[in-house]
Structures are given as structure tokens and as C-alpha cells.
Amino acid sequence: MKEYPVKTIYFEDELHDDFASTKIARKTLPKKLKFYHKNLIYRFLSNCVYYIVGVPLAWLFVKIVYGAKIVGKKKWKRARLRKQGVFVYANHTTAADALFVPLLLALPKRTRIICSVEAVSNSFLRPIEIFLGALPLPDSPEQRKPFVDAVSYYSKKRHDAILIFPEAHIWPYCTRIRPFGEQAFTYPAQEGLPVVSCCTTFERRKILRFLPPRHVIHVSDAFYPEMDLPLGERSKKLRDQAYDYMVETSSSLENAEYYRYLPKER
Question: How many CA atoms lie within 13 A of 242 on its CB side?
């Protein structure tokens, strides 16, 4: 099969470089931003917009533009993850990553997406994004507790899925896993909730071959925190399990190279 023409991108800092095509100017979050709502009317309207408007439109976008598919959804069902909160960790290869897990894996469970401040910096779109599930990282020490309370509320009380991109920055069509630490795994380690690791790989299209490769999202078995271990060790073990799954999956499967990332010579 004909190979894709590969575009080479040079990076300087593997941990902090971001190659997202959309650059959004960072704006400080409102000091009194509400990270979660218990109001029944708000929740009802949010669910209506999410399921009736957001899900159908986004599903069409994901399937038509990215040709995305899930591999391993039976693991999710087998672990009965619909009946409890779960933290999902995925590699970050496109802005649309935020749609793959909510639409192709977690439904009918709702998904809350922990994101950067930049992702919700548009003051007009911010209320809509939060309405649909965005959970921006706190912008000040005063917002830290409300944010953590929101994560606990959605995962423990509402049994939602919490989606986290531990690589933090978007590297489009990157076929390897970048390093990340265990800090983002503190949430499930504290709450005693399962972790699922998702790894996106890329597959050459059999039709519409002029389009970029399709996205294939591979799902791990659920990993559970060992609550008898100290918090730091629990977090690190969950991180290692999620990271190892991503690395093994990305390297062991046929992974179509579309962009190639190389360190910039100094």
C-alpha cells in the first residue's frame, strides 16, 4: 500500500512544545468561576444540550473527518465501568481527542474533560464549553479547592468519566508516547477509582486514501489503585500502568506515520 508523504517537525522541548494548529491567547479565569453545578435545572439543561445536540453533531464530525474507531470497548463493559466513576488517560494527537472517548467509549456516561486554561480562554465560548463538560485547571491558589471538589463530585457523586491528557500538549499524528509524570494520577489514587488507559494509533485508509490516516483508539483493561499503599506510590503505580500500556500499544501495532517528530539540532 502506498505510504503517506511524511512531514517532519522539529521539537526543542519534548515536555512543553505544543504543535496545535489553533493558538489561543491565554486569559485568566474569572475568580468566581463555578467548576460544578448541583442545580437541577442547570443539570437538566446541560444534559439535554449534551445528548440531543452535542453528541449527534460531534459523532458525525468524528466519524466523517477522522474516521475514528474504538478497539477494546468490551473491556469497558466487562469492568462494569458504566456504574462508577472512572478516570481515562489518553495520548494527545489532535484537538478532537477530547471527542473520541466521550462519543465512542463512555456513552451513555457523561465525560468531563480536564483541560488547560487556554482551552477555555474565549470568554464567549467558555460557558458553553463548561456547560458541555470542560473542567479547566485552576488559575489561582483560591481555585484549587473548588476544582478538586468538582473532580470529586463528578467522579464520586455523578459517576462520570474524567478524561485527562497527561502529555498536556498536542502533537498531531505523533506515533510515540511522550513522557509524563504521576501528578495527574493523584485524583483516582485519592478517590479509589479505576483508571483506563487509551492509546490512539493511526491506520491507512482503505477508501478516501487522499485523506490523513484514520484514528484508532485502543482501550486497556481497568487499573485499580492499591489503597494500602501510600498516596505517592499509588499514583506512581497507576501512572506506570497507564504509560506502559500506551507505549506498548503505540510501538507494537502498525502505526501509520504521517508526521515525524525529531529533536532540533543544537
Answer: 32
Q: CB–CB of 132/50 below 8 Å?
A: yes
| Burial label, 9 (beta-carbon count in 10 A; 0-12, 13-18, 19+) | middle
Per-residue pLDDT reduced to its tens digit, 141-176: 899 999 999 999 999 999 999 999 999 899 999 999
DSSP for 116-127?
A: -SGGG--TTTHH
Strand 161-164 with 134-136, pairing: unpaired
What is the DSSP code string of 167-235? T-S--TT--SPPP--SGGGHHHHHHT--EEEEEEEEE--SSSTTSPPEEEEEEPPPB---TTS-HHHHH
- Is residue 123 predicted with pLDDT exceeding 80? no
Q: Parallel, antiparallel, or unpaired: how do β-strands 259-263 and 7-11 relate?
A: parallel
* pTM of this structure: 0.93
For the chain, which domains are there? 7-19+35-263 (3.40.1130)
